[in-house]
């Protein structure tokens, strides 16, 4: 309440030291506003969380998670890594804490969805059913993510223990006296239970007093960034489009924020710092985390039982009940081993590398714990560790014993391990680990792909579909690269001509236009985009016209950001391939490329993995490692060498974009071209909270495409907003030289980006995200806009009136001829305004290639078996890249390499080796065809008879009829969303919000096909 806040503020003031130089960040109440907990208003309503549990809604939130992970970026002090994943792959302690909490939250959400994945009505189910494979793909093979789930649980429990007296005395009042008494008794039972007393030693896994160390200035900076990053992460939650998903995301963010606030606030001030919503969220989050730990064990059990059943092995274990999963064992974070039959001579257990590492980690921890507690003498500890270190590999027997004894009885485990030796000598029958794909002691792979952005992923999928063997090397610990940041779209000559795309691209490329590469790009654009739609099931249904284009040809999803959507979908395909067919596809993340040399069988790529030098070999190599737009601080910087004039320009590119591929390719004779051609994007957002940050958030081209205007500090337009990027940048630089840019505290070259409410509605998804991040601000009317920009309202009216008149005649003073349909700009409508600067966005220069994507040497001849694609290559875009051509280049040339690169030592396109290597969409089409033969035809008349619950509720979607009766009450958008189209063809209505991919993923099976009228 306001009274509580006032009391809190007064308490903070009392705690100040009069006359001291104490910084604001050192005040005891500094973190009181860590959470964005808005007080309820007249429109607020209570939600029963028991009746609205977290379930699979089909919503793809990959772009939200990516935005939140990317937001966790500390830039304090020269000793800290740049961005979330620095070159050393380390984070500062504060950054690591937030990352682990975010990962634990992500894991809990994933588990909730996996447990309640298939809705009632899908595949004949009457209740929600789990999807254990979804769990295994996302978490089961990644024990570090489940560790982060446990870490989050510990942090929240630590906070509850600290706030125990306050939480016990808290007035839990809802108006229902019986319910309130029950709540209070449950809280008392929890606070007095053994959970908080027995588990207290585990709370040392996190110690908030280790946060914010260093000098006073350094400590203050860390605190400011910690608060800012957490608040920004929680604000991104408001961008979630699914209402139920947003509810649970807000709940979780508020609960974690409450826990952090408790831990970072003096005990005697907790009562003033914590709101009612935060108390509610804190209890719900500890419940959700506890449930997730239980459910992780349950889902893993289901997976292994299904695997054992499919393999035909006899087992006496029964399937756990979905409504009452078995309680978790003390080591429940580990994916359990598959059930073992009674045959002592059974073959070696089927474990993933992650499973083995997780159990090995548990074994080493047990030895350490036994030694520290005195349960094992030093000599026993040494023998046990030697047995683990020398075993190649550690036997399954040891891992099985570790699973059941390492935690509960580390002393016994350590003594048995030391006595047995647990080595290959003690178990001569143990099979040696097979050589990894691409290892020098194994047959070379068909290709090594360096870089996990879109170009590399498209090439890898295309090769795997042909039965090829591929090793992918990625510097980061995730796939997507800078491609994942793309937000405006991908170009394609689908309903427009190839010639017009060639024309626009050539005009943008200027004097360095290369007709052969441009023709290749345009001619293959339609098949490339069709491949994205069909092979990785990406929705590209929206079409817009961006700057530099003569027609509408840039495609994007209806309900997602294009880069995140494409890279997420492609990444899922590759991660599944790495798990299912490691002998065909090997994925090496967190791996830095360091060298390249020719060997008799092709090429040897040298990499650094966890500080160790590793060699990988293949017949061919594709360099798709990105450009050099973030290497201005590298000692051998290409940016400083070729464009020193840009050294103080900010960038939108990730910290991994340091030109590694270009530098290594140069050492083996590759030709580099157009290295001085660096694209400046005209609109990189200035964050008002961090105006001088070197890394900016891109203000998508789409914002200008839908009608956004650029204004100088006097309120005048100064350019055609839809001309080429370079032309807009040139006008910005010219206006700056004329003194028309905004001044301090904004950085040099700052201008205003303004959207009226009609334009903002067209780009609603983008405007919502940018607004939540504080990059766009909503103001009311021209008067409000004038006040925000500190310019004359009359000047703005003149500017908008001139723009409206120009749109009516089809041309303005800057020769702009394309205007949006949603005009005019009106005096009393709302506006969205932000500040932008030109930023380094793309490097056109790179490795010279031909139309086959083969790397060219200094003599202009192809280097055998060496290819390049994406931003690592040069020449495709000439002087300046056309908006929307980046994702297109990656797809066209990545797909071409994947289709034509020699497989199995030959240059012919081979058939897939196995059924699993075949393109997924082909297999689906076959299954669909078989299913359709068994489905009966349903007429429109019969369909129309089923439009309510009494008569069963049928809806036609994409030519098939579905019975959604049992799903109506579960639909996150409410019953009416289904009932409104019941008994009809609801495809258009469904498509406006979702897509066919979502329908397929939810597991609904049609009951018939919609008969067409003759």
Describe, in plain words, how this protein is organized in 3D.
The protein is built from 35 helices and 24 strands. By secondary structure, it is an alpha+beta fold. The N and C termini lie far apart (66 Å).
**Beta-strand percentage?**
5-15%
Total helical segments: 35
Rg, Cα atoms, Å:
30 Å
| Helical amount | 40-55%
How many strand elements?
A: 24
Compute the average pLDDT. 81
Measured between the Cα atoms of the first and last residue, the distance is 66 Å
Please identify the oligomeric state: single chain
- Counting helices, strands and paired strands, the structural category is alpha+beta
| Overall 3D shape | globular
The biggest sheet amounts to: 8 strands, mixed
Which stretches are poorly predicted, pLDDT < 50 over at least 5 residues? Answer: 1-21, 76-89, 313-349, 422-432, 905-932
Short characterization:
The chain contains 35 helices and 24 strands.
Question: Any key phrases for this structure?
Answer:
single chain; 1014 residues; alpha+beta; 8-stranded mixed sheet; 6-stranded antiparallel sheet; 35 helices; 24 strands; globular
Topology:
Elements: H1 2-15, H2 62-71, H3 93-115, H4 132-140, H5 143-162, H6 164-169, H7 177-191, H8 194-198, H9 216-236, H10 243-263, H11 270-273, H12 276-311, H13 353-373, H14 378-390, H15 396-405, H16 410-420, E1 445-450, H17 454-465, E2 470-473, E3 490-491, H18 498-509, H19 515-523, H20 525-535, E4 542-544, E5 554-556, H21 562-580, E6 585-588, E7 591-599, E8 602-609, E9 612-623, H22 638-642, H23 660-667, E10 672-673, E11 678-685, E12 697-698, H24 701-705, E13 709-711, H25 725-737, E14 751-756, H26 757-762, H27 764-772, E15 777-780, H28 781-789, H29 793-809, E16 830-843, E17 846-848, E18 854-856, E19 862-868, E20 873-874, H30 885-900, H31 920-934, E21 936-938, H32 940-944, E22 954-957, E23 960-963, H33 976-979, H34 987-991, H35 996-1001, E24 1008-1010
Helix pairs in contact: 2-9, 3-4, 3-5, 3-12, 4-12, 5-10, 5-12, 10-12, 13-14, 13-15, 13-16, 14-16, 15-16, 17-21, 17-30, 18-19, 20-30
């Amino acid at each position: 309440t306001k009274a509580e806040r006032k009391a809190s503020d007064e308490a903070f003031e009392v705690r100040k030291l009069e006359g001291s130089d104490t910084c604001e960040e050192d005040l005891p109440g500094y973190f009181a506003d860590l959470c964005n907990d808005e007080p309820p208003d007249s429109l607020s309503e209570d939600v029963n969380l028991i009746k609205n549990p977290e379930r699979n809604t089909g919503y793809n939130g990959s772009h939200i998670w990516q935005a939140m992970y990317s937001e966790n970026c500390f830039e304090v002090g020269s000793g800290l890594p740049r961005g979330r994943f620095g070159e050393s792959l380390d984070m500062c302690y504060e950054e690591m804490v937030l990352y682990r909490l975010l990962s634990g939250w992500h894991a809990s959400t994933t588990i909730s969805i996996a447990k309640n994945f298939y809705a009632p009505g899908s595949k004949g189910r009457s209740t929600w059913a789990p999807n254990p494979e979804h769990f295994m793909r996302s978490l089961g093979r990644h024990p570090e993510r489940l560790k982060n789930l446990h870490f989050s649980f510990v942090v929240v429990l630590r906070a509850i223990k600290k706030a125990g007296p306050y939480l016990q005395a808290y007035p839990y009042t809802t108006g229902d006296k019986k319910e309130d008494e029950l709540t209070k008794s449950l809280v008392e039972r929890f606070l007095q239970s053994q959970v908080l007393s027995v588990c207290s030693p585990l709370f040392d896994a996190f110690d908030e007093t280790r946060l914010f160390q260093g000098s006073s200035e350094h400590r203050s900076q860390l605190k400011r960034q910690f608060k800012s990053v957490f608040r920004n992460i929680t604000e991104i939650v408001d961008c979630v489009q699914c209402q139920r998903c947003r509810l649970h995301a807000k709940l979780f963010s508020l609960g974690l924020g409450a826990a952090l606030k408790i831990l970072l606030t003096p005990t005697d001030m907790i009562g003033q710092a914590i709101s009612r919503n935060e108390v509610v969220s804190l209890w719900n989050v500890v419940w959700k985390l506890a449930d997730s730990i239980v459910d992780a064990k349950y889902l893993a059990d289901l997976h292994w039982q299904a695997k054992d059943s499919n393999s035909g092995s006899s087992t006496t274990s029964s399937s756990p009940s979905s409504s009452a999963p078995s309680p978790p064992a003390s080591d429940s974070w580990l994916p359990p081993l598959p059930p073992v039959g009674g045959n002592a001579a059974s073959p070696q257990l089927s474990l993933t590398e992650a499973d083995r590492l997780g159990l090995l980690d548990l074994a080493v921890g047990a030895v350490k714990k036994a030694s520290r507690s005195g349960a094992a003498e030093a000599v026993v500890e040494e023998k046990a560790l030697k047995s683990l270190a020398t075993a190649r590999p550690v036997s399954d027997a040891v891992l099985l014993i570790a699973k059941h004894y390492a935690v509960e009885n580390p002393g016994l485990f350590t003594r048995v391990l030391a006595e047995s030796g647990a080595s290959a000598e003690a178990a001569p029958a143990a099979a040696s680990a097979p050589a990894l794909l691409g290892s020098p002691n194994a047959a070379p792979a068909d290709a090594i792909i360096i870089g996990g952005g879109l170009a590399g992923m498209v090439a890898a999928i295309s090769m795997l579909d042909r039965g090829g063997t591929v090793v992918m090397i990625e510097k980061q610990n995730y796939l997507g690269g800078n491609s994942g940041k793309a937000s405006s779209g991908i170009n394609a000559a689908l309903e427009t001509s190839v010639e017009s795309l060639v024309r626009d691209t050539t005009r943008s490329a200027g004097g360095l236009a290369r007709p052969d590469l441009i023709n290749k790009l345009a001619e293959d654009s339609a098949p490339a985009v069709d491949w994205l739609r069909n092979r990785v099931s990406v929705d590209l249904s929206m079409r817009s016209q961006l700057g530099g284009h003569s027609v509408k040809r840039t495609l994007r999803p209806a309900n997602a950001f294009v880069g995140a959507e494409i890279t997420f979908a492609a990444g899922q395909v590759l991660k599944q391939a790495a798990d299912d067919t490691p002998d065909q596809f090997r994925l090496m993340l967190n791996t830095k490329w360091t060298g390249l040399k020719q060997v008799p069988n092709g090429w040897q790529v040298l990499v650094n993995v966890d500080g160790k030098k590793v060699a990988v070999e293949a017949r061919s190599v594709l360099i798709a490692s990105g450009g050099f737009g973030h290497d201005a601080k590298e000692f051998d910087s290409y940016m400083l060498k070729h464009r020193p004039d840009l050294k103080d320009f900010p960038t939108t590119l990730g910290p991994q974009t340091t030109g590694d591929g270009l530098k290594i390719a140069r050492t083996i004779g590759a030709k580099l071209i157009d290295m001085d051609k660096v694209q400046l994007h005209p609109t990189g957002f200035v964050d008002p909270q961090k105006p001088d940050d070197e890394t900016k958030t891109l203000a998508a081209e789409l914002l200008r495409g839908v009608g956004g205007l650029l204004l100088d500090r006097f309120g005048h337009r100064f350019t055609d907003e839809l001309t080429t990027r370079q032309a807009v940048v040139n006008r910005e630089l010219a206006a700056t030289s004329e003194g028309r840019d905004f001044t301090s505290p904004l950085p040099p070259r700052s201008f205003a980006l303004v959207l009226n409410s009609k334009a903002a509605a067209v780009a609603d998804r983008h405007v919502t995200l940018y607004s939540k991040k504080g990059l766009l601000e909503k103001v009311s009317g021209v008067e409000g806009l004038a006040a925000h920009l500190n310019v004359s309202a009359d000047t703005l009216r003149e500017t908008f009136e001139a723009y409206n008149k120009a749109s009516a005649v089809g041309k303005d003073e800057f020769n702009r001829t394309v205007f949006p349909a949603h005009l005019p700009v009106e005096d009393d409508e709302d506006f969205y305004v932000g500040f932008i600067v030109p930023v380094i966005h793309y490097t056109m220069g790179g490795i010279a290639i031909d139309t086959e994507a083969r790397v060219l040497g200094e003599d202009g001849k192809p280097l055998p078996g060496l290819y390049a694609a994406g931003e690592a290559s040069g020449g495709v875009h000439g002087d300046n890249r056309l908006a929307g051509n980046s994702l297109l280049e990656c797809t066209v040339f990545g797909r071409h390499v994947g289709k034509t690169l020699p497989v199995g030592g030959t240059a012919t396109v081979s058939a897939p080796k196995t059924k699993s290597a075949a393109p997924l969409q082909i297999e689906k089409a076959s299954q669909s065809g078989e299913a359709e033969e068994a489905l009966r035809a349903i007429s429109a008349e019969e369909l129309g008879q089923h439009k309510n619950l009494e008569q069963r509720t049928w809806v036609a979607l994409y030519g098939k009829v579905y019975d959604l009766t049992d799903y109506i009450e579960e639909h996150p958008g409410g019953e009416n969303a289904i009932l409104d189209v019941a008994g009809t063809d609801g495809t258009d209505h469904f498509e406006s919000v979702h897509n066919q991919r979502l329908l397929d993923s939810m597991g609904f099976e049609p009951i018939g096909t919609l008969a067409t009228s003759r």
